[in-house]
Specification:
Blueprint (H helix, E strand, L loop, with lengths): L2 H26 L4 E4 L5 E4 L6 H4 L5 E5 L9 E4 L6 E6 L14 E5 L12 E2 L4 E2 L8 E3 L5 E4 L8 E7 L2 E8 L18
Antiparallel strand pairs: 1-2, 3-12, 4-5, 5-6, 7-8, 8-9, 9-10, 11-12
Length: 192
């Protein structure tokens, strides 16, 4: 093979590889989300919110009241199953998925997406949960629970919240909770 043939074959291979990377990236940027129900069925939506039918599968649990929340004062709770640890925080800054009068209240699973270790340390100056005691992963709660440091590569599962009057309710979970093929199976449901 001549040098010219080698370069042409390499360029063609590079173009094919680039197309294989670019097409999936453009497809994922549409905002479509796929949700798995407790029976294993999947539903794809055109928004980041789960379809109402899937939210109805999760229990509705009162977590706190808006009036009792202090900024950067996390509240721990279990949801949707017993033993599934979560944290609810009023961040003090409006965020995309926030609820409440200031759109700054969010809740996420406290189980690290790397190996499932319990992450309990909230850092108010960074609006971050972590570092994880196992491998130091840290998650930015103001950026959809995004892994910002450490071994974790996935965002924390976000607990969907609704506000009714002064009460904050957990109504569902987006993304699978670590260690579960289905976030609604494997332990008893929390008591409503």
């Amino acid at each position: 093979m001549t040098r010219r043939e080698f370069l042409l074959v390499g360029a063609a291979g590079g173009a094919v590889a680039a197309v294989g990377v670019i097409i999936p990236l453009t497809r994922s940027s549409t905002g479509d989300s796929t949700f798995v129900g407790p029976d294993g069925s999947t539903t794809t939506t055109g928004t980041l919110a789960p379809p109402a039918a899937l939210v109805r599968l999760f229990p509705k649990l009162r977590v706190a009241s808006v009036g009792d929340l202090g900024t950067d004062d996390p509240i721990k709770f279990e949801y949707p199953l017993q033993g599934q640890h979560n944290v609810l925080v009023k961040l003090g800054t409006q965020v995309a998925a926030g609820v409440g009068p200031d759109s700054d209240i969010v809740a996420f699973s406290s189980l690290c997406t790397h190996m499932g270790c319990l992450v309990e340390n909230y850092q108010p100056e960074y609006r971050a949960l972590g570092p994880c005691p196992c491998h130091f992963s840290t998650f930015d709660l103001s950026a959809n629970g995004q892994a910002s440091l450490g071994q974790a590569t996935e965002n924390l599962p976000q607990v969907l919240l609704s506000v009714e009057g002064d009460d904050i309710y957990a109504t569902g979970v987006v993304r699978l909770i670590y260690g579960h093929a289905n976030s609604l199976q494997g332990a008893p449901m929390v008591e409503i």
